[in-house]
C-alpha cells in the first residue's frame, strides 16, 4: 500500500533501467496487489471495503499520488484529518454531539478568521516591512537539506556516536549498532537521478515529505557551488 501510494508516472521505478509506469499501470498494479493479498488471506469483506472506498477509480483519484499530472507534495487525507483534529480539539472541545448549526457557526466565526490570517501571512500581506521568521516546515526542510548535504561517512559516524553515547542498557542499542555496522559495509546503490525533473528512483525520495533525497541535494549543491542556504 505504501509503495503504491507514493508511485507517480514522473518517478522512475527502483530498477536498473529506471522504468516509468503510466497512471493506469500504477492503478492496475495497486488493485492487483490488494486483491491478491485479500484473496490469499480469505479477506472478502476487507476487499469489498478497500475496493469501494479506496481503489475504485472514483475514489482512487481522491488520494493516490499517481492520479495527478504533477507530483503532489501534500497528502490530502492528512490535511483533512489535521483540519478536523484542530476543529474538534480547539473549537468543539466543550461541546458533546453539537448541532450542525452550531458547528457551522463556529467554523464561520472561529475557523475562517484563522485561515484568513494564515493565508495573508503566507502571501506576505501581514507585517509588511518586517522580517519574517521561518515557518515550521521551512525549518524542517533546511535541517534536512543540511543533513543530506554531508557525506555518507559523516552521517554514519554521527549516528554511531549518538547510539554509543546512550546508556548501555538502552533497549535495542546493540541491534542498532549492528545495523549501523552492516550499513557501513554495504555497497552504495546506483540510482537514476534527474535534477531537471527533480526525480530520483532511490527508496528515500518518494516517501519524503519534501520530495528530496541526498542524491538530488548533493547534485543541486554542485550546481549551486555549495552556496549557503
TrEMBL record:
InterPro entries: Znf_SWIM
Segments forming domain SWIM-type: 191-224
Recorded superkingdom: Eukaryota
Keywords for the protein's UniProt record, in alphabetical order: Metal-binding, Zinc, Zinc-finger
Keyword flag Zinc: yes
GO MF term list: zinc ion binding
Protein name: SWIM-type domain-containing protein
Source species: Mycena maculata
Amino acid at each position: 500500500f505504501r509503495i503504491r501510494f507514493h508511485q507517480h508516472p514522473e518517478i522512475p521505478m527502483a530498477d536498473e533501467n529506471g522504468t516509468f509506469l503510466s497512471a493506469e499501470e500504477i492503478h492496475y498494479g495497486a488493485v492487483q496487489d490488494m486483491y491478491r493479498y485479500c484473496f490469499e488471506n480469505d479477506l472478502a469483506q476487507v476487499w469489498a471495503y478497500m475496493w469501494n472506498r479506496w481503489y475504485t477509480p472514483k475514489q482512487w483519484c481522491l488520494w493516490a499520488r499517481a492520479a495527478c499530472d504533477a507530483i503532489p507534495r501534500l497528502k490530502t487525507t492528512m490535511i483533512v484529518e489535521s483540519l478536523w483534529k484542530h476543529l474538534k480539539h480547539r473549537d468543539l472541545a466543550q461541546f458533546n454531539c453539537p448541532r450542525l448549526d452550531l458547528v457551522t457557526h463556529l467554523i464561520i466565526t472561529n475557523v475562517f478568521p484563522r485561515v484568513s490570517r494564515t493565508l495573508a501571512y503566507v502571501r506576505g500581506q501581514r507585517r509588511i516591512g518586517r522580517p519574517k521568521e521561518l515557518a515550521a516546515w521551512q525549518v524542517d526542510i533546511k535541517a534536512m537539506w543540511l543533513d543530506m548535504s554531508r557525506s555518507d561517512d559523516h552521517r554514519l559516524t554521527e549516528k554511531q556516536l549518538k547510539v554509543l553515547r546512550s546508556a548501555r542498557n538502552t533497549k535495542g542499542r546493540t541491534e542498532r549498532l549492528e545495523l549501523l555496522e552492516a550499513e557501513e559495509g554495504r555497497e552504495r546503490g546506483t540510482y537514476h537521478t534527474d535534477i531537471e525533473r527533480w526525480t530520483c528512483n532511490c527508496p528515500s525520495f518518494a516517501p519524503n515529505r519534501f520530495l528530496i533525497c541526498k542524491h538530488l541535494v548533493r547534485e543541486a549543491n554542485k550546481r549551486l557551488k555549495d552556496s549557503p542556504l
